[in-house]
Amino acid sequence: MRLGDLGFDEWFEAHAAELRLDGCGFARISAVDRGSYLIKDESREVPAELSGKLAYQIDRPVDLPCVGDWVTAQYCNNDTAAIIRRVFPRRTFLRRKTPGKDIAFQMIAANVDTAFVVQSCHFDFNPSRLERYLIMAADGQVEPIVILTKTDLVTQDELDRKLALVRSVTPARVIALSNVTGIGFDAFRQTVSSGKTYCLLGSSGVGKTTLINRLIGRDAFETKAVRSTGEGAHTTSRRQLVVLSQGAMLIDTPGMRELGIVGAGDGVNTGFEEFAELSAQCRYGNCSHEHEPGCAVRTAVEKGELDPGRYANYIKLKKESEHYEMSYRDKRKKDKAFGRFIKSAKKRMKD
Ligand SMILES: Nc1nc2c(ncn2[C@@H]2O[C@H](COP(=O)(O)OP(=O)(O)OP(=O)(O)O)[C@@H](O)[C@H]2O)c(=O)[nH]1
Ligand SMILES: [Zn+2]
Prior knowledge:
- The structure is a single chain.
- The strands form three sheets. Strands 10-9-8-11-13-12 form a six-stranded mixed sheet.
- It is built from ten helices and 13 strands.
- The protein is an alpha/beta fold.
- Bound molecules: guanosine-5'-triphosphate and zinc ion.
- The site of zinc ion (ZN) has 8 residues, from helix 9.
């Protein structure tokens, strides 16, 4: 293997001179776990840490190395460990707003060539969420390709209608496929080439892991059994870069469902229209549809008029959406408070 096989191309070569250090080599971050790193080069993959100087120089979390970054590393302990001394600029990146109090950006992956934005054409289908993933890709200069999975669960008419909806939000390439029948899979396989880095974005249970396993022809990644609704349960938990046997690289990310719903009140109701209608009939205006008496949504589920899996999905998305909107509002409030603080400080300086 050469560094080029890991994606070190002319673009990074062009930066090599300024980042080179005596006694060091170049490597790519393959995993990150709370301040500890795994780095990979042409001959090894070893644990690594930031040098004290680099840690001191980095003052924003987004500048910390993330999966996919190229770094200058010094190997130690007979090449069984390394110290990261420098970080290359990023050609592309995927980032999201951090949940929680201080809203900044959180890096998800660097130097990704193509992001597969995966949605199921079954329950998960949601054009506005799709759009938000596309915006995220565009933000970091990553080329998006939309994958619509589970075509086996819908009729051709339904699929055509959904494809038209996708095309109405993006000019990006769209591939519809089924992991069950295999239809459409070759089109997906043909987009994957060696030396390039890919990432799959999409809600939990849409079939990302199944796609990868099918691509590499074995079960390297664990999937959870499908629920009766046709949607799966969350399983992916660690962010990592793996080199597939075909030579392509894949950054496998956790669910990232929250990405799509940040700060968008319509995020849940789009695609769940019948819930909005039923909610109007609940006894309480602010019904959470979980334990309140007189809840029309739960009654519909109990009567078998609403799919229980779809109900569970709705509740889950609603909670996430509320959580992220909350942190958004907190942040806005803080911004305003901070703005006032700066203003009054300036005024005091003048006085
Ligand atoms: N009917 C049908 N089921 C599928 C298809 N693709 C995946 N599934 C099933 O959907 C469930 C979830 O698939 P996963 O591949 O684990 O989903 P995921 O997107 O990786 O989910 P996370 O790991 O939680 O992000 C599994 O039970 C799969 O067998 C498909 O094309 N058709
Ligand atoms: Zn209710």
